[in-house]
Amino acid sequence: xxxxxxCEYLLSSGxxxxxxxxxxxxxxxxxxxxxxxxxxxxxxxxxxxxxSRIRQLFYSxxxxxxxxxxxxxxxxxxIPFEDKSASxxxxxxxxxxxxxxxxxxxxxxxxxxxxxxxIIVVGAATxxxxxHNGSNEALAQYKINITSIAPLLEKLAISSDVYWVLQxxxxxxxxxxxxxxxxxxxxDAYNEAAVRILNSSSRNSKAKVKVFSVSKxxxxxxxxxxxxxxxxxxxxxxxxxxxxxxxxxxxxMKPIDGSCCQPQPPLTxxxxxxxxxxxxxxxxxxxxxxxxxxxYRKNKSCTDLExxxxxxxxxxxxxxxxxxxxxxxxxxxxxxxxxxYLCDRANLFMKENKFYTHSSFFIPxxxxxxxxxxxxxxxxxxxxxxxxxxxxxxxxxxxVILVYHISGASTFLPVYMHIRVLVAAYLFQxxxxxxxxxxxxxxxxxxxxxxxxxxxxxxVVVLCIVMxxxxxxxxxxxxxxxxxxxxxxxLAVWPQIVQKKANGSCLWHFGLLLKLxxxxxxxxFLSYSQGTFExxxxxxxxxxxxxxxxxxxxxxxxxxxxxxxVFHGMLFAFIYxxxxxxxxxxxxxxDPLFSNRVSNVLLFISIVSFLTYxxxxxxxxxxxxxxxxxxxxSVVQILxxxxxxxxxxxxxxxxxxxxxxxxxxxxxxxxxxxxxWLAADTKGILVLIPGYPMFNVLVSTFIFxxxxxxxSQITNDLAQxxxxxxxxxxxxxxxxxxxxxxxxHFFSAMQDQSRH
Length: 756
Prior knowledge:
Transmembrane segments: 269-291, 325-343, 355-375, 396-417, 452-468, 474-494, 506-526, 561-579, 600-617, 659-679, 685-709, 730-750
Helix content: 55-70%
Protein name: N-acetylneuraminate (7)9-O-acetyltransferase
Enzyme class: transferase
Main location: Golgi
Low-confidence stretches: 301-318
Largest sheet: 6 strands, mixed
Family: Belongs to the PC-esterase family. CASD1 subfamily.
């Protein structure tokens, strides 16, 4: 409501999330690493001027550059710091009072020939209060001195970043006798004088001294933990240093999770073209709708006044044309993409950092599971992993993953390991579902492949264009797409072995197993040959799809993390369909899957296996080591869940329609959350309604789910138009799609050239 100056908010307002995490009002703060701080401050000169409190801030700041620095310097003297590797100079200059000496130093930069520092941090007052015993004369002199310094600081602010640090409150009960005259009332008077005088003469918005008042808010929460009642605890001053780093470096480094002080990115050429296309689609659809409405009114049946009978129209209302349906879909999609852009690219809505607590993750999970149980219905069929059951499975997994993302639960390792199993379970279903289709139907036609690829990739391609993000950024879709093509290639390559052919001879089953063994061998080889993997996906045009930040390492990491689970899904489908064909399992309504004895034994083993995996995942101490084991052991919990869910006849015969509804739009939910539920590319949380966290989540969730559902319908409608069943028409559409991607590549190359 006050405008989009997030820098001002960062310097003046915020709150604590928990005890140590500071949340600026309306924007996200990036946690800078040493390497990032050095890259930002390379060839820079930073100066801190003031008393012992400013000296504390100086030390916290240089520790962001070099954490090995120890606070060993002259207490009441100047302290230099230099990082020669990055040519960074940071100096602390001891000027405990705002007086003539401080003015002379500042004047030498503002009016002299001395090189000006790039960043100047100034602040002092407590010494003046202490030395003059809190007298009113000292305050009057302070006002005179700061009035003489203000024009010089404003002159420096034209070319440098100048910050005036307001005085933090003190904890009066802990102050020593020699500091008892430093009261919060006196500090407030000095701060008020500084704020009123600074920038009072400045008419140029660029020549503005930035008032660093946020430290007061931080101190109000933490000063009770001070060792002497005057100086802040280390965690608080580290927060102040990190805020300073964000104010200066965010506009230079442009971190994704540092939205404070970042200007809105300019529209790219491709984004401008997309905007024009959607605008034309909206106008085109409105024009066609008006024409149809007018035709309908002209031909609408009317009453004959003489006979009193209704006349029939001479022409019947025409069916909706393909062009109108296309324009209708693009019209809706254009409005939705506008919302995406406003949420996560424009500085219109607020964004906040995530903050994990156990209650923020587990309470919503329990609530969602209870809701799911209330919507229990009978399934149409009672086969293992029937359609309703797989939709239900996808649905509850997706809801758990969404809660995991918004709560920031990735910082809690046991939750992270269980979520990894859910992602693996999605890929398991990919292997199971596509293998079952090709094995039973034997349909390896181009139409089937194009339909699957279109439904998987349509939304992501649109978001890559509108949100200016690489394809690999939405990692799950490339993962599922590549595994679908691997499954297709494995089964479609000569000799094509399908169920109908295999029924004639058992040798075909061995042939299929041989294919699966070859697939497993290739997966194993690539998983231990990072160089070969990276060479394959570094070739053009694959590199355009799978590179992120100039390399394919992220794609390698994502692929390797769940490298075996799709194979496990294919193998499970093969074994299950073989058992089903030979009538070795019972899938009648209410019947256990096997004989009572076998069912009970398998159910017991499944429950033990499920719990054993959970205990192991919960005892994980190191994410890297657990990730190494995950590809081999995740299938244990997946298979255990399938058996627990399907062995008892009653459990197999019911499903949750609540979860199944979400399962049908699970892909759209997973992708849309990046920009319209979370924020800053999943790093933060979108804030539509500030000040009311629960109400904000309810409103943003409602919009998010509705948008995901609408996009699912748009994708299905467009799939029927873009991927027709007629082969000759399909070939023409594929040529059009090839032309579209060629144009996209051309404009992308132009865009990259203009950036460089």
